[in-house]
Structure formats: structure tokens, C-alpha cells
Queue: 4 jobs
Job 1
Amino acid sequence: MRVGVVGLGMGLFLATWCRRLGMEVVAACDRDPGRRAEARELLPDATLVDEWTALLEERLDAVVLANDFDEHAPLAIAFLEAGVHVLSESAACVDEQQARALLAAERRSAATYSFAENYVFHPHIQLVRTIVEAGEIGRVNLIEADYLHGMAPDAVASLIGDPEHWRGRIEPTAYCTHTLSPVLALTGALPTEVAAYPVDSADPRAAVVMLVRLDDGGLAITRHGFLQGEPDSHWSWFSARGSEGLAESVRAPGERAWSVRVRKDSWTDPGGNVRDEEREPAPLILPDGTRAESKAEGTVRILEGLRACVEDGRPPLVPVLPAVAASLVGVAGARSLRENSRPIPMPDLLAGAAHRAP
């Protein structure tokens, strides 16, 4: 399987994992000569170029897009039109027009679009999904998800205050897919309305809370940005409350942060007993027989999913519709912030369009 990579920051990490999992990285692109030089050390046999359009001339089965956060959709559309399978590492789109263009391009293409949302496949979120799918906590009606960094104030200011960095130019709600994508994967729902609130009105760019209504009737509360007390499970904490119980990742240090607490109250038990237990996720064993780091499991599963799309004709693990839906929540959230936290309806992405079955 021949893979190309655009962007050699996060892209070099993904390229290294591609090679470790048995894929051939044959071409890569970055405008920064220093990054290309670093990539030469790790990808000695790959063609390295400074413009992504050159990768369209390569004989690729798939491309990994790891360029700047808010510049993925035009590249994804171009590669889909060339019949190349796409794995997009960051926001799928920055507005509704891009969303609809990407949906249309994927429908026309013989290739597939996959969203590289590794948080959907983190161990604690996978374990919550298993609990929900087994019916242990009943119908899910409230989900909470955090993606938080506990950085020092000067470090935060230098990052989101730098207009030359993508973190400095995007809206404070934009980087929401690490919270929204797991919500949509767990429920199979789509968002219908978004209201966003700054955590601190004196510093509104630092952290936001969003209330997201889902089309299955449930509600999601997401928190992301820069707040103290970041979770040890790769900055992620996740909770699902159902009609018969609760499943939430454990707020604990180290490896225990990947475990999940299950709580069912006495009325759900014929014997009147409260059930409150902690479960550890099963380890992921790599093809070479070693155990994957917990924080790398999502990346491994996403890349293996891409290979299954290319080699076995399997559908994407996170397909294009939930990808653009999660990304557009950030767009609606930004508008909500500008309009004094007014609830903003989401566009109907299904109107007039047929999509591949997930």
C-alpha cells in the first residue's frame, strides 16, 4: 500500500506509524526545508517535495493530510477527484460550503474519505462504547467530553496569541472534534443545535463550553481549550449518562486515567444493590507482538482502518458525514459566541444527498 503524506509535523509521526504497520510511505510534502531534512532521516526512500500538488503525480493508494488545521478540505477534494483514498488528520472543513463540496466529492469518488479522529478510538472511550452497546446503562441521554490542556498562562498566550500559528488564527470553538467525534460515534446521532459560552469572559479565547443538542434527543456538554487539571488520558475525559446508569473515565493519575467507572443505582438491581465498579481497557497488541501505548491506540486503529479501506474495500471508521458534522459544530459555536451565546441551528447535511452507509 503506497501512502503519501502532506505536512511533516504531525504527519511525520503518522508516517512513522504507517511504516511500523507495514505501509510504504513513498512521498511526503512540507514547505519547511528543516522538516523535509528531518523527514529524510526517517523516510529515506520517500520522494520529498515542497508543494502538495506534486503528490497528485505520484502513484498513491492513499494520502494522509496533516497540513495546517484549517486547510484540509481543498486538498481532500483534489485527492478524492484523483481517486486517492484520503485520511484527514484535522478539521474536515471550515464552513458549510466546504462541507457540502467535500460531501459531494466523496460521493463522486471511487476512493473514500476517512477522518483521522484518533480520540474516537482511545481506550477509555472504546470501553465506554462497549458498555453502552451492551445496554448496561440504558439509553444514553447526556454525554460530557473534555479536551483540556493545563498550560502556564504565558505558554497559552504565546500559542493562541500568535497569528502566524494556526492555533492563533482559528476561532476558540474550532478545535472541537476531539470532543464531538467521540460523542457522534457513541450515539450515531448528528448535532442539530449549538450554544457556546466562554469559560472566562475576561479571557474568552482560552477555553469554551458548548451545549450541543443531538438529533436522537440527547445532549452533549463539551469543554475544550486551556484549563488547569488536564486529564492524564491524553487530555481527554469522557462520560455517558444513561437511563439506567453512568459510565465515565476515571479522574486519576497515570495509566488508571484510561479506566472507566460504571455506576448503577439500587433501583436497577433486582436485589436492590448499588453497583459501582472500575474497569480497565484491554491492551492493544501490535503486529510485532508489543503492546501499544495507550495514547497511541487511537492512531494505530485509524491507520489500520485506512488500510482496510484501501486493501479490503471496508468503509471508513470515521466517515465523511460525521467528520464534517463535528467540524461544523465549531463553526456554529463561533457564531454563538459572537451572538452572546445564542443557540445556533446546524445545517441539514442530509438534505437532498444520499451518502454511503457507514
Note: Confidence is low (pLDDT under 50) at residues 354-358.
Job 2
Amino acid sequence: MSQPHFIVFANEKGGTGKSTTAVHTAVALAASGHRVAALDLDSRQRTMTRYLENRDATMRRLAKDLPQASYEVLEDHTEDALAAAIDRLSMEADVLVVDTPGRDDELARSAILRADTLVTPMNDSFVDLDLIGQVHPENYKITKPSFYAELIWNSRTARAKQTGKSVDWVVLRNRLQHIESHNLRRVGAALDELARRVGFRVIPGLGERVIYRELFPKGLTLLDLQQLGEVGIAHITARQELREMIAGLGIPGQEEQKLAAVG
């Protein structure tokens, strides 16, 4: 049996929209025809798990089927438990989405070593950029990569030696403002420079929209709204952002024509 494609969402900073993006990715890929499993490594906050539990509850309440991932939260924080959970979820999945805690965590490092696609969501600010690269205070150019970039570099090197496979590291610019600004351009230029030096791709993620916070209690995503008759102009624009983000991840076997037809 072939291993599923591992998508690991990891960032040691909290508040970057990591779990929300992980859920939207899992559901979008399920909607496109993938068999998707989700593993939550943050047993304290368990945001991804709660989101998907809310989704199950909404389906029961409405007596309506929606695209869904199988999911599990890792309660036992050991390497053996992580390996066992991955084995269980991999049995009937061709994509495994892993959400890691927003802190330095040994199991998160282990998950990163297994990643085929590593996604680091970040808010569009120099505060978040500092996690992966330091900038000059006057010209805003990169002075050196930060500790997290070095951690990922070492993890990618170790994986290449162990398996001969490369890791596609994607930095996701979440909470982008919809108005062009000096900060937007400066952060973008610094990220592009760092991407060339460290070796990651930069793609736009989910914009700064209230709708993402409102969807959580029902476990819904932007792809569900038309099915439920709740679409406005702003939702259509946000849904297109989601589609472009999923396409930008470039997951093997992605059936984009089906995704475009959903919602």
C-alpha cells in the first residue's frame, strides 16, 4: 500500500490562521475527490478537531452530507503513538493533513520530517516574518535566516538523506489586507528574497475576513455556503481565494475541475 501525501501545517507562532487553513485545505481536497484524513497534534487546543466535530454536528442537524475528512487528535504524546495514528489514518487516505501546535514541540518536529508538503502560514507582518528571517530596520532587506528557517532546512536535509525525497516548503501569506500598502510590498519583497536564499515557495493564503471566524461554530468552509444557500458577493471573492490557495499547494492527483465545480 502506498503512503498518502503528507501535508504538515507548522508554525511556532500562534494566531496565524494555521488550523483554519488546515481545515479548509482538508475539506477542499475532500471535495475534489481525495480521500482525506486529518491528524491534530495539539491535544490542548485541538482547534482542527473541534472544527471537524462541529462539521459532523451540522451534518447531523441538517441531515445533509458535506465533504469531510476522517480525523483524530493525538492524546498520547509519544513517537510510538504518533506512528500508530499515522498508520491508522493512512489505511484509507491518499492525503493526510497534520496540524501542529503553535509552539516548539518534539512531535511537530517529527511530523515535519515526514512532510511531503510543509505549509507555514504567517500573517502579513514583519513580526511573523521574523520567525523565518530577520530584516534590516532601515531598508527592510533580509539580514539572515532565523532559527525556524534553519530548523526546517535541517529537517529537509535529514529527510532527503533518509528517503531520497524532497520537501516542498510553502510559506502561506494569510490575512492579507485587501488594500495595497507599503507594509504589504515590503513584506512581499523580503519574503521573495528569503525564498531565494532558503528555498521555499510563497503563495497567497486566506484574506482577513470575519467570515472565517463565523464559520467555525458550524464547522463550515467557504465551499459549503452555496450548497446551504448563504452566498454573497464577498463570499464568492473569498471562495476564489481559497481555490487559488489549494491550486497553489499543488497536491499530486488534485482534481481541480471537481473543486471548481463545488460551490
Note: The radius of gyration is 18 Å.
Job 3
Amino acid sequence: MDQTYNPTPSAPVIRLMVLETDKPHPDTHSERGTFGKIVHEHFATAGRAHKPPVGVETDQVFVVSEQGGRIPSLEEFDSFDGLLITGSLYDAHGDDEWILQLLELLKTLWIKRADFRFLGVCFGHQLLARLLGGSIGPAPSQDWELGHCRIALTPVGQRLFRTRGDDNHVYLHQMHQDQVKIAPTAASAGPDMLPQDTEIAVWGHTDHTPVQGLYIPNRLFTTQAHLAFDEDMVKRQIQIRVEKGAISDLEHADRAAETADLEHDGVEVAKAILRLFMDDEEGQ
């Protein structure tokens, strides 16, 4: 269902297709809706906070075909400026049929739409890295990065998030074991996908995860961490993973849940993502 936030008649409006690769906890769904709706509300908040304000229009498709979803057609993206791939319990390095079909769609869309922007969160970050030839897999330590986390910014990250002086970090919520182990390059992407002089920048890192996000001006922005999680969502998503046996270190899970109420920079990161649609070469 289309959702629109437009602060003023003259404000630019960004049209974003959200590809939902999972479903939220039932309690979160009853309170906040699908991940697509949660993404819309978060980016509408960022649009209000942006100077000048930016309008946001979204639609969403649930793409996990084995759970009743579908892979959209290429034509369904014609009226959109970009897409965002959400987080998921699935492995982005897996060969599930819907993942392979989605990768094929993304490759075709990337090649045919030079003006299109690609955004990814957690699973989406990893899948887009895979699309461009990066290496994805479990962390070498085999442990999870969970809860409120300090992410050190590279010079590219500091420009993107407009930090100043010694303010060279952001705080976001994490919930992953898999990671981008080797960042993609123009060479790994191949000449059909990127000119060979294209730099795919890493904008942040932690001790657990050296590649916290990827960036290509006017084209790509990914983040391993989550932008729109609130306290209840963090606790519930941890609970889901514990109940499914994905997280076995219960002490680690409990410590992470205790950080769920801490403030994070999800809106600032979303504002930086919105600038990707407004000729962001110089960080305007």
C-alpha cells in the first residue's frame, strides 16, 4: 500500500520501494505494522528533520516466496527512485530460490537503471554486497553483534553524517552474526555493473564487523546496523532469535536487551540516506 509524507507542496518527494525480506514480531506488527510501514515512518521522520524538509513516498512488497511473498517485476520499479532491502532471519549468502531470484532482479535493475538508488539494511546490506561481488559469511569469532553499538566512522562516514572534530562515531542497534567479510570492489562487481574506476567506500567499522556500511555516491548506501528499531523491537527481535536457537549465548542476549532503551542515531543515518537521492557527491 502506498504511503506518502510530503511536508510542503514544494518539497522534493523521494519514491522508495521497500523489499520486505522478513516479518516483524507479532506484537511489533500489531503496534507498528510491517517492516515496510516501519521503514516509511522512520524515513518520514528523517524527512521532517532534514533541512530543507524532504517528502517520502513508499510502497512495499514481501519477497520471501516460500512464505507467500513474490518477487516483483522490473516494471513495478518504473515510478520509483530507489529501493530498500530490509533485514531478515535468512542468510544473505544462502541459495534459497527467492534469494537467487531477487539477486537476478537486482542485477537487471542495476544495469538497466543508472539513475536508481540501492539501499540495504542488515540482510539487505549483505545481499547488495554479494550482488557486487563481496564475500559474505559468519563472523570469524562465530559470535553475534547485538544491541546498542558504537560505530567508528571513516572519513567518508564523517562526511556523510556531517560529524565534526572528534565526533567520529555513530550509535546504532545491531543484530547479526553474518557480515560482509570482504567488501566488494569495482573489479569484483564486473564491468557490466560498475566502471572500473568506481570506489565502493566503507563508511564505518567496529571490532566485530570491519564493514559496517557501503557507499557509492548517487547509487548505493548500506548499513549493517538497524535504523528504525525502538526498545520493544530490539527486545522482541532478540527473543525471536533466541527462541529459534540462532542465539545460544543467553547472557550475551540479556546484556544486549538491557541496552535497548539507549538513544541511537538512526534518524541522522536516514537523513544521510535521503541525501543520496539529491546529488550527494559533495554531501549537500
Note: The chain has nine helices and twelve strands.
Job 4
Amino acid sequence: MKIKAIAVDLDGTLLTSEKKISDINKNVLKYLENKGVKIFIVTGRTYISAKPFAEDLGIDSYIIAYNGAKVVDYKNDEVVFELPLEEKISKKVIELGKERGFHINLYQDNKWYVENLESLETQHYAKHTGLTPIKKSFDTFEDYNMTKITIQDMNNSKEFNEFCNELKRVFGNNVYTAKSQKFLFEILNKNVNKGLILEKVLKNYDISVEECVAFGDANNDLEMLTVVGYGVAMGNSDLELKSKVKYVTDTNDNNGVAKFLKKYFF
């Protein structure tokens, strides 16, 4: 089948360990776009953090950010779709996170809020994304409809993983949760995930999911990789993700995206 779209995650997928898009990956994606294939960045990152990579590629399509909670036409910064967490859920996540003493990141209106600028988690995330944190007491928001909330623990401790499981039990199907990194647990609106929102975006372009290739490396990519016709796990993905998808390619540092596309679609 001829492909009409490519959906690609950023960290651990399109980006190298140095957080760059290799020339090989860039050239292959641009070649296919010039042939009429739509290229979509689908990431857990914030829109602001993802936009420079869309500009680097020069793609002519939307950015699906925050695991699907916000879709933006990056050429004019127009928000096409957004579905934040409900206020009561945001407040409860904050309450439980603070009770357990874990680092919390809040995302709202393309801004990233923390209560501690000096923590290891804040410093790492700032370096990882290039974003600038804003210090704010979490008791002082007028609006608690957050685009996304993450709980972060750089040690990936036993207590952290137990707390992640606790949050799953407390909220059940009232939220969508996923680990985008071993140290980062994400909480979003229940009607949001990469696969669900990618399918909606593709329909806007009159493209079926069967005509789409998707690449990812982490747990939050699973829904996207299993809804499309060609779901591809990166070589650096864990074994559990690899076992659930149709295809596996090379690692993010070895141009896995380009290698798969060359093998199957050139």
C-alpha cells in the first residue's frame, strides 16, 4: 500500500541522544514530503519545545504535542485542538503528589510551572527540553484546567513507581496515564492519547490510519503504533513495546527512522 502519512515521535525516536535530527533522517523525510507524504511530529513534549524541530524539517502539517492534548498549526501558532485535564482532577493530582513529596510539573498555556527551580528534576527537564521553568505556588492558580501534569523522579525509585500505580488506581479510566521516560509519569485528559488524536488529525487530511507509518520508542507511543498500518518500534525501545508492534527498526542513534522508510517505501 502507498503511504500518505508518517507520524514520528521525537525523543528516543527521530532525535539522537544529542537531541538533534540527523541529516539522513531529515533528508529522507523531506524527500517523502516532496512526494506528497504528510509528516507529523507526535510528541509528549510541549508545543514550544517541539516547534523548533518542525521548523528544522520544514514540514507542512500540524504538531501533535502533549501526547495529543494539544494540536497546533506551527506556521501560525494556531491551536487546532486542545483538551486539558478537568480542574478537580488536576487539584487531586497536585494534592497527592505534594503529600508524597514528589516533583510535579504543570503545563498550561504553553508554560511550564514548578514550585522548586533548584531541584534535580527541574534542572534535568530544562536541559532536556530547552524550556524555561516558571516558579509558582501550586495553590495560587485561578484556573486548574492543565494541559498536562507530570510526576518526575530522576532516580526512578520504587516509591515513585508505587505512586504511579496508586494514581492509576485512584483515577482509573478518568484520566490517561503513561510513562514517556522511566523517570516521567504523565497524566492527561481521559480522551487523549497519541493514537486517538493522530487518527482524528489524519481524518482531517482524508488519510486513513492504514496509510500511515508511525515511529516511537516508549510506553506513551503504544496507542499510536498499534492504530496505524505500519507501527514501528525503535531498536532502543524496551522489549515489551517491541513485542506489541508489527515492526522494529534500528536505534535512534543509527537512523532507525530513515532505514525503515528506505527499506519499505523507496
Note: DSSP finds ten helices and 14 strands in the chain.
